[in-house]
């Protein structure tokens, strides 16, 4: 099973390759891109233990000079201090403008590697090799890179496109169940905002909460359709001047929840799931979509095994304050992505603090 999705943007073009068992052929693919000889592979220790040797040996076999740098896993390490460490390694090994930084890992590794590549020597080659479902269907595509600020998620960053996104679904066999479910939250997001047929297909599956419950063909479908949905949106709006904002469905409240829980008790997908449930309730209360559609979404989120309630320890006043720091705030107004039907959403700044507070009370 193999899919190749072309990404064509005004100033760059690249491919998303989705092929089961392709990881050992990575070096051969990169040879076609005419990159410089030096490649810095950035990963975390756990992922590197699983797949580091396969990637490094493939690159060496194809004639590349390979260096490695490992960063501990998790959002708490998605900081400028970690970026500074990458710069030190790049300087030590004399990475040049023709050189490459390669992200082997999930969304955190991809975001940091991309930001480092965007800013080292004002921009060097960048390759994404995502190993989590969330990174495969979302974080590795579209060129958003960055790190967190203590007051908010991804407040420091740049738009910087990779030269290639190289996806081997077989690596998901080592992904923890909780992280698989986090990735499925983003898949549901694409169904709600863009791809009604994908949403309907998810509904027809008996179980969605573990990788083992998915047929290989359906996993390929999930990844391919999610990637295509994101490409469709990003191709029309690369730097989020309009349409691309819909990709943040569920993320407005989700980022606030992540930030306020210190990025270590609720993962990204869980927070996005909560954010989608909240956004669905807000849309229903504003008369934008039906209660039935809201319930369909919530049942699907519950079906993949994500939490559907918010901890009572979360202070709603803190959430409202955190929302004001969101990147999507415009002229002081928080912009929410709200569904109007399965497969369609709008961007709205008419969501009052009282409405947000009421919906959150329902979810606690």
UniProtKB/TrEMBL annotation:
Its EC number is 4.2.3.4. Its main location: cytoplasm. It is found in: Cytoplasm. Residues 183-329 form the 3-dehydroquinate synthase C-terminal domain. It is an enzyme of class 4 (lyase). Zn(2+) binds at residues 186, 251, 268. NAD(+) binds at residues 107-111, 131-132, 144, 153. One of its GO terms (molecular function) is 3-dehydroquinate synthase activity. Its cofactor is Co(2+); Zn(2+); NAD(+). Pathway: Metabolic intermediate biosynthesis; chorismate biosynthesis; chorismate from D-erythrose 4-phosphate and phosphoenolpyruvate: step 2/7. It catalyses: 7-phospho-2-dehydro-3-deoxy-D-arabino-heptonate = 3-dehydroquinate + phosphate. It comes from the Bacteria. Residues 70-181 form the 3-dehydroquinate synthase N-terminal domain. Belongs to the sugar phosphate cyclases superfamily. Dehydroquinate synthase family. Catalyzes the conversion of 3-deoxy-D-arabino-heptulosonate 7-phosphate (DAHP) to dehydroquinate (DHQ). This is 3-dehydroquinate synthase.
């Amino acid at each position: 099973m193999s899919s190749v999705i072309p990404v064509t943007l005004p100033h760059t073009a690249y491919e998303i390759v989705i092929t089961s068992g392709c990881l050992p052929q990575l070096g051969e693919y990169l040879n076609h891109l005419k990159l410089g000889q030096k490649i810095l592979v950035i990963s975390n220790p756990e992922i590197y233990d699983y797949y580091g040797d396969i990637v490094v040996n493939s690159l060496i076999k194809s004639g590349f000079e390979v260096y490695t740098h490992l960063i501990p896993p998790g959002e708490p390490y998605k900081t400028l201090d970690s970026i500074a460490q990458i710069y030190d390694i790049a300087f030590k090994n004399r990475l040049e403008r023709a050189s490459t930084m390669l992200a082997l890992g999930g969304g955190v590794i991809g975001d940091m590697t991309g930001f480092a590549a965007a800013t080292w020597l004002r921009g060097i080659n960048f390759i994404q090799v995502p190993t989590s479902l969330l990174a495969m269907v979302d974080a590795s595509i579209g060129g958003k890179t960055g790190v967190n600020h203590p007051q908010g998620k991804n407040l420091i960053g740049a738009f910087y496109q990779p030269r290639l996104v190289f996806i081997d679904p077989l690596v998901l066999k080592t992904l923890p169940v909780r992280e698989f479910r986090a990735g499925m939250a983003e898949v549901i997001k694409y169904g709600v905002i863009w791809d009604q047929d994908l949403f309907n297909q998810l509904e027809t599956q008996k179980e969605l909460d573990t990788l083992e419950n998915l047929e290989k063909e359906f996993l390929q479908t999930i990844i391919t359709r999610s990637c295509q949905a994101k490409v469709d949106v990003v191709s029309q709006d690369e730097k989020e001047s309009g349409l691309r904002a819909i990709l943040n469905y569920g993320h407005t409240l989700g980022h606030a929840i992540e930030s306020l829980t210190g990025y270590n008790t609720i993962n990204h997908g869980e927070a996005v799931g909560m954010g989608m449930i909240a956004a669905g309730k807000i849309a229903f209360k504003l008369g934008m979509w039906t209660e039935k559609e809201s319930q369909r979404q919530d049942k699907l989120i519950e079906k993949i095994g994500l939490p559907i309630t918010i901890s009572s320890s979360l202070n709603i006043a803190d959430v409202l304050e955190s929302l004001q720091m969101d990147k999507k705030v415009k002229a002081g107004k928080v912009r929410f992505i709200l569904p109007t039907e399965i497969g369609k959403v709008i961007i709205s700044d008419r969501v009052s603090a009282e409405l947000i507070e009421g919906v959150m009370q329902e979810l606690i």
